Amino acid sequence: MPERANTCAIAGMSDVWEYYRGELDAVEDQIRQNLDSKVALVNTVCAHILSSGGKRIRPLLLILSARTAGYTGRDDVLLASLIEYIHTATLLHDDVVDHADLRRGRKTANGLWGNQVAILAGDYLYCQAICRIVGFRNQDVNECLSEACRKMAEGELMQLSYKDDTSISEREYLKIVEHKTGSLMAAACRMGAVAADADPAQRDALFAFGQAIGVAFQVADDALDYAAPREVLGKSLGKDLGEGQVTLPLLHLRKHCTDDERARLAEVMAKKHSGNGDLAWVVSLMERYGSIDHAMDTARRIVQAAKVHLDPFEDSLHKRALHVVADYMVSRNH
After folding, report:
1. Best CA proximity match to 267, nearest among 287, 251, 244, 290
2. How many angstroms separate the CA atoms of 81 and 89, rounded?
3. Which long-range contacts (C-beta less than 8 Å, at least 24 apart) are formed by 116-121?
4. Could you give the dihedral angle defined by the CA atoms of residues 204, 210, 215 and 217, in that order, rounded to the nearest 10 degrees?
5. Nearest-5° angle of CA 200, CA 24, CA 213?
6. Where are the domains of the chain?
7. Which has the closest alpha carbon to 326: 28, 29, 68?
8. Which neighbouring-strand residues pair with 107?
9. Residue (of 276, 227, 232) closest to 249 by Cα position
10. How far apart are CA 215 and CA 176, in angstroms?
11. Is 36 helix (H, G, I), strand (E, B) or coil?
């Protein structure tokens, strides 16, 4: 696609959404076209979550990365739609694992149709994405996506293995986040570079950028689980605490609170279904010790480091848009 005239400045995400509306609309069309199972229930369940208001960050990253690397074709739109299929499949599976009842403010698929249907619908989306990507006959794309899927599964299993374990290190926590969230964003960026036939150094740079902002995204999300109102997050506040998920704010709090507070914190986590009083107490402690601020500051530092990976690319509207998306990773719920 030829470069359009720079008729607007990319100053914020609203500008990015507006400038790339045509590409994102094309991704939506492609998502609907790909949803062509002969089993009506599959289409119904998948359409429910695919139409639930996702921001399409991963498709956008793929398109922006491709354009930053000089791509002018249209295959990035199809690849972007398939990246969203993979992401949506993980959401369907995650909601079953987490016993979630809300996703983006709507009833989850497992809440409406049951766990079996949700899992199988997720499997269908995985398979549909892989089948269509094979059609590109590009080994680099195949390897990139298969590696991302492997790492995401490992990340989820790593998180489960550390459940309720507040003795894990910050480095171990960040490794989990890198796998379960950073992997697909990294893959989206690298696939954009592959579509552009970029050189290996540029592919690696965009991969590193995507991985870093994916980590920042998850760290910020984990912090906002204790700080953002339900209508902003689209899920219940304190969900991680109730599930025994050990995230950066909790690790920071445990490290800095008193022995008595640490003992009570362990009791709260052991309850599994903490009440509002317990949650309010934990949040008040986090505010006192700066645990939420620490997590958000960490996410911001990661974003700033991520932007350095874009330095080898010439200045362009697409590169500037990637900078804006990176900042959005830690500001989207403020």
Report:
1. 244
2. 13
3. 117/41, 117/45, 118/45, 118/92, 118/93, 119/92, 119/93, 120/42, 121/42, 121/45, 121/46, 121/92
4. 170
5. 50
6. 13-328
7. 68
8. 102
9. 227
10. 9
11. coil
Name the packing angle between helices 57-68 and 317-328 (round to 10°). 150
Tell me the C-alpha distance between 91 and 52, whole Å.
Answer: 12
Q: Is residue 170 predicted with pLDDT exceeding 90?
A: yes
pLDDT (tens digit, 9 = 90+) per residue, 10-47? 889 999 999 999 999 999 999 999 898 999 999 999 99
Residue 240 and residue 274: Cα distance in Å, rounded? 11
Q: What is the DSSP letter of 107?
A: E
Measured over the CA atoms of residue 231, residue 287, residue 160 and residue 56, the dihedral's sign is positive
Query: What is the C-alpha separation between 223 and 215, in angstroms, rounded?
Result: 12
pLDDT digits (tens, 9 = 90+) for 236-284: 567 788 778 899 999 999 999 999 999 999 888 887 655 678 888 999 9
* Tokens encoding 222: 């984990």
Alpha-carbon span 45 to 164, nearest angstrom: 32
How far are the Cα atoms of 87, 220, 290, 293 from residue 334, in angstroms, in the given order? Answer: 24, 11, 17, 13
Map tokens 């229930």 to a residue. Answer: 41
Query: How many residues does the structure list for the chain?
Result: 334
CATH architecture of 13-328: Orthogonal Bundle (1.10)
Which pair of tokens denotes residue 21?
């509306």
Nearest CA to 289 out of 267, 265, 269 is that of 265
